[in-house]
Structure formats: C-alpha cells, structure tokens
Amino acid sequence: MRAKTSRLYKKAMHSYCISFNFRTPYQILLDSSFCKLATEQRLNLQQDLQTVLCNPTRPMVTECVIQELHKTGDHRAATVAKSFERRKCKHHLPVTSQQCILELIGSNNDNNYVIATQNDIIRKQIHDIPGVPVLRVKNGMIILEPLSKVTKDAILQKEKEKTLPSSAEAQQLKIAKLVQKPPTEPVHKKRKVKGANPLSMKKKKKQSPPPPKKQKNQGNKKNKNTNNDKTTTNTTSKTGEKRKRSSDDTKDS
User: Fold this and answer.
1) Can you give the pTM of this predicted structure?
2) Exposed site from 110, 140, 203, 244, fewest CB < 10 Å?
3) Residue 113, H or E segment
4) For the domain that residue 115 is a member of, what is the CATH number?
5) Domain range holding 87?
C-alpha cells in the first residue's frame, strides 16, 4: 500500500474516532461475499485488515454468514470464516448475511462496526447511515471507501454542536439575561485639545533684532550739532568782516 493511501485511510479513521467514538481494536463484520472473494484471491485477512486500517482489528462473522457459505457450497470460505470471532445475532433460524448485518448495524451503528462486503445492495443502504466505514476487495487488495455524504454532513453537524452551549449552560444564560440590569449609556469623556507635536513642527527662523531707538536720537543730535557748528562759523565770519570794515574806516579818517 502506498504512503499516500495509508495517510488517507488514517485520516478517515481518525474522523470516525473523533465524531463517532470508534476505538481500537476496530470491530469488522465480514460478509459472505467478502469472505468468498478474499479466499479466492488468497488474501491474509487478519494481516491485511490491520495494514489497511493501520491499527489492530477484530474480524467477526455471524452464524448466518457461515450457514450461507455452506449453502452456496463455499466450504473453504466457511472454514476461513470459522477462524474469526463469532458475533451473536438474534436469529434462531439462519437468514441471509445481508439481512443479518443490516439488523446488527441498525439506524445509527451504535456498536461502531466496520463492514467488509462486496454486496452492492448492502453498500448502498450503508451509505445512507452515518458513521459506517466500508471495506471491499478491489484488484487483489482491500480498500477503504471514502466517507459518504451523509457521514460528512453528520460530522459537520457535530462540530457545530460542540461550539454551542449545553442545556445547563443555556439555562444559566437565560437566568443571567433576566437578572441582568438594562444597559446604561456609556459616558464618553471629552478629549482634551492637544497642540501640535513640537517634533513634527518646523523650527522658526531667528529674525535679526530691530535697531535700537537710541541710535536714531544720537543721529538727530549729531545733525543738530553740525547745524549749530555751521551757524557759529557763519556768525564768526560775519563779525570778522564787520571788524575789518571798521578798521579800514578808521585808517581813512
């Protein structure tokens, strides 16, 4: 068996174990058609079933299956079936293996049986029951059929139920809702107006300080002093001319 197929079989049986409480060793109910074809192809059922399911197994047959094999004349298959564990059924008179196995499975497969059969009618009816793995012989080897649609839907439903609260928790939630006070409106605090982040702001350029006012007064004073100097020079020049004229007049007289 390939590694890829063994991984698929492990994954399928793991889903059966989680969702439908299958446990090792797996209980495998063998049909008369399965026992007949396995003996014809000389399969070692005890070993091959363990390699397919990757776990220890318990092959089982009912008295109805053995009696059906004797009626059809498959005595070799009947001797192989007698080597397996007997599963008691409610039939005092032997019935067909199809009827016997379907009655043992019931509507929910409470005993977690794995069914090994080549009968197409049994396989179709089993596919309508959730949580029933099916084994069959194909090309000289035993294969595990993939999960049916009903089984997949049941797994999804159980996964949803796990997320929901239990009945006791639901009652506690109802009581808590009745006791709970009506919700009050939350008081929103006003946010303080914050200034801009100083690190994100550009630094202000330093402006050169304006010239002091004293310099203007000193400039006015300088202008006044120059004007006074000019007036004094003009007055002195005029007085000097008057003196010269007065001296010239005295000389003439």
Assistant:
1) 0.65
2) 203
3) strand 113-116
4) 3.40.50.1010
5) 3-156
